[in-house]
Amino acid sequence: MIKIRTYFICLSVLFSLNACQSLETLSIDYLVPAEISFPSNLKRIAVVNNTSAVPDSNIINVPQKKEPLLVNELKKSTTYFWGDAAIATESLANGLAGANYFNEVVICDSALRANDVILRENTLSKSEVEELCRKLDVDLLISLENLQIKAVRTVKFMPDWNVFLATTDARVFTSVKAYLPKRNGAMASLVLNDSIFWEEGASTETSAMAQLIKDEELIRQTSDFGGTIPVNKLTPSWKTSQRFYYSNGSVNMRDAAVYVREQEWEKAFELWQKEYQQSKSKKVKMRTALNSALYYEMQDSIPQAVEWATIAQNLADEVEKATTKMKEKKSIYTFPNYFSISVYLSDLSERMSNIAKLNMQMDRFKDDF
Asked: Contact 338/290 with Cβ under 8 angstroms?
């Protein structure tokens, strides 16, 4: 949630910046490491379903207290479900295969605990793991251990639109474990959750109620979604982020912006550096320093990008007196350059801290990725 809020605040600041100076934005994609690191010699993995068979009814009986309706809410209900583990296991396997990180991903179609009488989580034993790895000819097991869903359905009236709105907010809780042969217990455990949302409008309350997603479809879609949640925790993944650069103030800055749009970053960088060296204006130096940081990030030279972003941040502080204004509890809109550059520097610092871990995880490809 913090990252999302920061992102929207940063966009607001950028829009306010754009009112008084020219800014350009672009999207960049870069790899971020997985939460869990696996040895590079693990080439083949299997995804298995280690959940208990659920009762005929997927609904989980949970004692609930009646929640007060919020403004405009007409009806509201909360239901808990067992997810469809078979769907989630297949979704997890497809997601790991699509990440192209391991040489091969296989799926064990049979539920390992289909005959359980009592619903429970049960860690696979060392002998079970070794037998499964031998039968499936794999080096590692990724096991789905539990899958539960909390669905909140609401019907509300929106007077400004004169429409009845039917919404379903489903949160899915996914538990997975990673097992290595010859090792007691799981090498790693993940308990994750995320949500999926449906919304439909209708002219009457009755028709809005009819628009609410049905249990069977909700379980199907949410289980499929739940299987994708662990993928980015188990394999490195691509992240898309927004970046900005200054494009006005002089002929060199405008020409450099043209080079950027043409993907000629070296020529743009030369002009930014020329402007930085020649100008005596702290504002100009701030802008060219930030642009230079972006150039280095585009070259995956993150230490140099951090260095130039830090220079830009210090110059922005001098220009806008940001440190002083923060002590006076002034609005961030009174020092927009400093704030936006600081957010960018924070992103770069995070990338910097991840370099060693990412390099270790990508070592299996020997720079061929």
From this structure: no
